[in-house]
Amino acid sequence: MVSWSLASRPQAGVFSTLAAATASYLSSQRSFPTVPLTLEYAGAVNIESRVPVEERLYVPAPGEESDVELMPAGDVTEGVVRVGATIRRPHQPQSFAVADYLDWLEDAGFVGAPRFLGRDAGGRDVLTFLQGHCAGAEPERWVQSERLLASVGRLTRSLHEASKGFVPDEHPFPPRPVRQDPAELVCHLDVTPQNIVVRRGVAVGLVDFDLAGPSFALKDAFNTAMHWVPLRDPADAWPGWEETDAFRRLRIFADAYGWTGEERRRVPAVGIDAVRLSYERMEHNARTLGGGWKRMWDDGVGGLIERRALWLDTRSDQLLSSLIDG
Length: 326
Known about the structure:
Blueprint: E1 2-5, H1 14-27, E2 39-42, E3 68-70, E4 81-83, E5 86-89, H2 95-107, E6 116-119, E7 125-128, H3 146-163, E8 185-187, E9 196-199, E10 202-206, E11 213-215, H4 217-228, H5 246-257, H6 261-288, H7 291-298, H8 301-314, H9 316-324
Parallel strand pairs: 1-2
Antiparallel strand pairs: 3-4, 4-5, 5-7, 6-7, 8-11, 9-10
Helix pairs in contact: 3-4, 3-5, 4-6, 5-9, 6-7, 6-8, 6-9
């Protein structure tokens, strides 16, 4: 692990130069054939000297932009690329709200999220690149690891603890369609296997904060478990996941996250409501926004969500028993 302890945020381009040089060196060493590089800068941040997110411009280091890699396309956001040790993403209406949130997480000492560095000359958002492994669109068998699942629960809890107290006053998040979640905590809300960075078999980081916004911790934690257990109709199981025990895996996640008894009793109802609301929002976005939302809807995501809601509803007693008993 390489850790940079700085008294303030590194200047634009400096961090990427150090990262690229160190990554190049370590990748050439035979003793590090499969160990991904960890790059973290931790320590006190000079908040008073920090440039507001809307004024923050990123100037690349010399030669940095010769190292470009197209990243896997997300469900909605396309055109994401790695440039040196940075990620470039299209600027979006929620970008500054997300940037403020990432600044807050940095100040709170949470090292499992990218840092917002500013916008480049093309207007794209520039963030630090978290190196590691992410699952594919159909998660591979290694994602079934119970050790990994438990680490996802712990990472999600750490994110929620670090998020406490953040209020997006300067740049509010855009309102959600259909109806708003109770605004108790700003959450990630899309902790899928594709958005978790894994190193040495454990979850160490989160990426793609596009859906972040005000909600409540139990919903975000349930949503994470829904994707990672996963909680869905067996007819929609990913290849190779047909024999996984959803109830055992849900208990592993719940214990690792640290759900209280009261929270465990609320999970079935919270989950069913969350899934039904997601159906309404997906349908709304497909109809009004088009793009990736419409593509997912046309590919049958609405039916998958309906089957998931029915599965949760008919197994609420088993879900509760798996969380409480023993």
